[in-house]
Recover the amino acids of this structure.
């Protein structure tokens, strides 16, 4: 602990110290203005500096979208991955963020792992070396990483409650090497503990994991943050080695922790250690000396070239008997393009790692451009692979003559009463709202309703399926008829995954139908 941090801790009250141990909102740590301690911002990763737009939906700001973690590892090129890390560090700083929440270094143990695409490999040696290169690249730009998810987070099903039952030898030989190298070789600034339990104890309150192994055996000097809403206790988590509860405001590391210290259940020495670790990251980021300044992420030719190069390097050709590849344009008259993802640019896996690229090109679009009408291309979607109904495309929606999208109206109550507090045009219908910031002005996060209205133009005749997946009540009306609804049903909590409800109807090509979506965040049965 350096003298500056030591003096700050000496001047702080117990309440000020503990205020630092939980975020102020979903992306920021807390500040202590009296002592000039600033808040710092973190941003999702790991293969793009994903930062939220001001309306707190999934309308993220554009950023360079690099290949996913599994593709990075498939290059087997640590120098290339380090260069990717450098750009990610630059773009994280351009968004005024101090920490990139990545890399994800959990080992692939089953092909059904829901976040395998984010992680590097099933091989601990390959994963650890790619991990080091990634971290060294990012942190060379005065930006920290949060190596995640510590530990044994190898499936998404029941991730809040599942217990990974693994013997210590397997843990050390298979699951730990990437994390250990991240600490000992790359010097990761922060680590993020996982949702799951390890041999019966949640990671966020697992003393063996966070204190004995990470901090004592490996000598980790950074801070340990929880995954979002992965803190489950106050005294147990504090004594186990968790330093920062995310997101804020505090649920466990607030008043309850103040009381626990006063009662002697958590020592002041433990609190001071946590504060010193958080202040050390603030200092490394340069936030004490100069406030972070947000600028637009640069869409440069160098960054585009690196993204394309890393994608190309990730391809592995296992067999090419007779050398049919690469295809020769002069010898082809007709080309069949088959597959559900051929006509859409699926460049990422989604979820918290989702990045809004500066541009996307689908394989079908690219082939048509390369072939220049000299080769006949026949496309068939084949077997659909999407689990959920695809997000509604704005090009089929009309908000007003000549304008795509739908008119959005937000109301400061749960049943659409009175005048809307906010009106706007929305063209994206994949929203993710958290409690730190409402999706529109002058409404409460827990007490609002919203309506999107306009017209739907059917591109072809046939049966159409519409779906809703939401934490709240919603319905879709088409031509004044209810197509699908979740009204009256129970719904998941804000961070649980709900089930999609769907409905179908017959539409005619070219016909324009009145179309609307209604949503109630926290409805009362009486409002029906």
């Amino acid at each position: 602990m350096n003298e500056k941090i030591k003096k700050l801790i000496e001047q702080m009250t117990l309440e000020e110290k503990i205020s630092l141990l939980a975020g102020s909102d979903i992306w920021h740590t807390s500040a202590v203005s009296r002592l000039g301690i600033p808040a710092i911002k973190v941003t999702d990763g790991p293969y793009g500096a994903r930062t939220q737009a001001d309306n707190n939906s999934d309308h993220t700001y554009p950023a360079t979208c690099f290949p996913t973690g599994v593709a990075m590892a498939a290059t087997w090129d640590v120098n290339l991955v380090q260069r990717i890390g450098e750009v990610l560090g630059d773009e994280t700083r351009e968004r005024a963020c101090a920490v990139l929440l990545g890399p994800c270094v959990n080992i692939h143990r089953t092909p059904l792992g829901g976040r395998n695409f984010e992680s590097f490999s099933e091989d601990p040696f390959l994963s650890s070396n790619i991990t080091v290169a990634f971290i060294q690249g990012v942190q060379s730009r005065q930006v920290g990483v949060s190596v995640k998810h510590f530990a044994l987070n190898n499936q998404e099903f029941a991730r809040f409650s599942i217990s990974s039952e693994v013997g210590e030898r397997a843990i050390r030989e298979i699951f730990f090497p990437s994390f250990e190298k991240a600490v000992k070789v790359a010097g990761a600034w922060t680590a993020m503990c996982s949702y799951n339990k390890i041999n019966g104890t949640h990671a966020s309150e697992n003393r063996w994991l966070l204190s004995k192994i990470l901090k004592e055996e490996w000598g980790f000097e950074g801070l340990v943050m929880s995954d979002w809403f992965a803190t489950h206790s106050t005294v147990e988590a504090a004594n186990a080695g968790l330093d920062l509860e995310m997101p804020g405001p505090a649920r466990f590391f607030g008043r309850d922790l103040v009381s626990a210290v006063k009662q002697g259940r958590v020592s002041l020495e433990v609190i001071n250690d946590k504060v010193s670790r958080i202040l050390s990251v603030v200092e490394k980021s340069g936030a004490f000396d100069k406030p972070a300044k947000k600028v637009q992420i640069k869409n440069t030719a160098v960054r585009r070239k690196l993204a394309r190069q890393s994608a190309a390097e990730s391809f592995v050709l296992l067999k090419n008997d007779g050398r049919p590849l690469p295809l020769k344009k002069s010898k082809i008259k007709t080309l069949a393009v088959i597959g559900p993802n051929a006509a859409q640019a699926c460049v990422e896996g989604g979820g918290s790692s989702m990045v809004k690229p500066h541009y996307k090109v689908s394989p079908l679009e690219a082939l048509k451009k390369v072939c220049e009408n000299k080769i006949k291309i026949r496309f068939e979607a084949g077997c659909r692979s999407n689990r959920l109904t695809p997000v509604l495309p704005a090009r089929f929606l009309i908000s007003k003559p000549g304008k795509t999208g739908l008119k959005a109206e937000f109301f400061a109550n749960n049943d659409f009463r009175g005048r809307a507090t906010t009106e706007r045009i929305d063209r994206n219908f994949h929203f993710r709202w958290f409690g730190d910031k409402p999706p529109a002005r002058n409404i409460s996060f827990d007490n609002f309703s919203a309506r999107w209205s306009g017209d739907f133009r059917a591109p072809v005749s046939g049966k159409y399926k519409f779906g809703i997946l939401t934490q709240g009540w919603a319905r879709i009306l088409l031509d004044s008829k209810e197509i699908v609804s979740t009204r009256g049903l129970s719904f998941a909590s804000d961070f649980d995954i709900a089930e999609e409800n769907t409905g179908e109807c017959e539409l005619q090509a070219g016909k324009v139908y009145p179309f609307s979506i209604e949503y109630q965040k926290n409805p009362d049965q009486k409002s029906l």
